[in-house]
Write a structure and sequence with these properties.
By secondary structure, the protein is of the alpha+beta class. The protein is 18% helix and 11% strand. The protein has one domain: Roll (SH3 type barrels), CATH 2.30.30. Strands 1-2-3 form a 3-stranded antiparallel β-sheet, with no helix packed on it. Strand 1 and strand 2 form a beta hairpin. It is extended, with a radius of gyration of 18 Å. It starts with a strand and ends with a helix.
């Protein structure tokens, strides 16, 4: 598992910040046999659907590794441009 969880306290430790976070209410029945998908490393992306409308346009965050070669950064820039157009 890529996230440490404490089932008794219903918390998990963020792999990015190291911060402890409470589980959402819909995870009240979490157990070793019933784990949410986002706690498994093979689920690199998780899509959530909100139950209430969002007041405004969507926001996209792109994180780019600038240690790439110039030609690779150009290709990635082209992909990002195609995504937002």
């Amino acid at each position: 598992m890529h996230s440490r969880i404490v089932q008794q306290l219903h918390i998990h430790t963020s792999t990015h910040s190291g911060q402890r976070n409470q589980f959402p209410q819909h995870y009240a029945q979490i157990s070793q046999e019933l784990l949410p998908a986002e706690l498994f490393p093979q689920h690199a992306a998780v899509e959530y659907t909100l139950s209430v409308p969002v007041p405004g346009p969507p926001v996209f965050l792109f994180v780019l590794d600038l240690a790439l070669r110039d030609d690779e950064i150009e290709v990635v820039g082209g992909w990002v441009y195609m995504l937002i157009m």
